[in-house]
Amino acid sequence: MDAQSSAVGTVAKTESATAVRLRFTPQPEHVRTARLVAVAHARRVGVEAGLLDEVRLAVGEACSRAVGLHQRHCPGEPVVVVLDAVDSTGSGLAPDRFVVIVADKVSGAVPSPRGEGEGAANAADAGEAAAQGAAAEAADDEELDDAEMGLAVLTGLVDDLDISAGPDGGAVRMGWPVKEF
Amino acid sequence: MDLKLETRDENGRTIVKVGGEIDVYTAPKLREQLVELVGAGKYHLIVDMEDVDFLDSTGLGVLVGGLKRVRAHDGSLRLVCTQERILKIFRITGLTKVFPISDSVEQAVTAVD
């Protein structure tokens, strides 16, 4: 099992009957579709309305990143997105987290945001520091590295975030609380 | 939703009114517009984002690229934005320190950069 399948499999172990899986060719126009589906599903499983903009932006960023990676390295491979409400504590009660995994097939693709390790106290600070560095360097670079800016946004936006990579692919995993019914 | 772009000149500035979603699919259209304007000698730009429904890092990258291009000609790029969900993205990335941001086009056209 490769890393992309493995990442999806991690969710599948606890996948609920309401889980949604998307597979799309790595084309920018499909990222909007993924955003729309993610927000619709988040709303349906009970993510608070005030968090839906965050879900929309974060899923868009993760999918844009995956599309960019696939276009450069494996344009024939689809990007896989899994959306699910899970019982993260294993309590057997109602799901308490809305989890999104965006899996890619590109090995070792976990670039560190610029500015990381500069003493940022938390993820938001790290994202801000990263972007400040990126913005400053844009004065010298012809094009800003969108992937780095995307990671800065993700890091600053999502508290429950894990970006992993393996020899056969990587995944961005994000989670948000589900309100009690 | 497609990206809508309108341009007009006012008080020596060129106002680019942007509507819709700026993302990885539509951002190239905005980049093309900004490159065209700079190529036509328009170095003082105001990007009106009041009708923008969505902005991601690709859009941020295009705006930073536009800023770099006008600055190469001693120009300016000012944003008009009052939407909290859009401003939040600029704050997260620290770009509020890079872009001057006005509350209205009227304020932006009279601002001193």
UniProtKB/TrEMBL annotation, chain B:
Organism, scientific name: Catenulispora acidiphila (strain DSM 44928 / JCM 14897 / NBRC 102108 / NRRL B-24433 / ID139908)
Domain of life of the organism encoding this protein: Bacteria
Ranges for domain STAS: 3-112
GO molecular function per UniProt: anti-sigma factor antagonist activity
Stored InterPro entries: Anti-sigma_ant, STAS_dom, STAS_dom_sf
Function comment: Positive regulator of sigma-B activity. Non-phosphorylated RsbV binds to RsbW, preventing its association with sigma-B. When phosphorylated, releases RsbW, which is then free to complex with and inactivate sigma-B.
UniProt-recorded name of the protein: Anti-sigma factor antagonist
Swiss-Prot/TrEMBL keywords: Phosphoprotein
Alphabetical list of NCBIfam families matching this protein: ant_ant_sig (TIGR00377)
Pfam name, any one: STAS
Database matches in Gene3D superfamilies: STAS domain (3.30.750.24)
Family per record: Belongs to the anti-sigma-factor antagonist family.
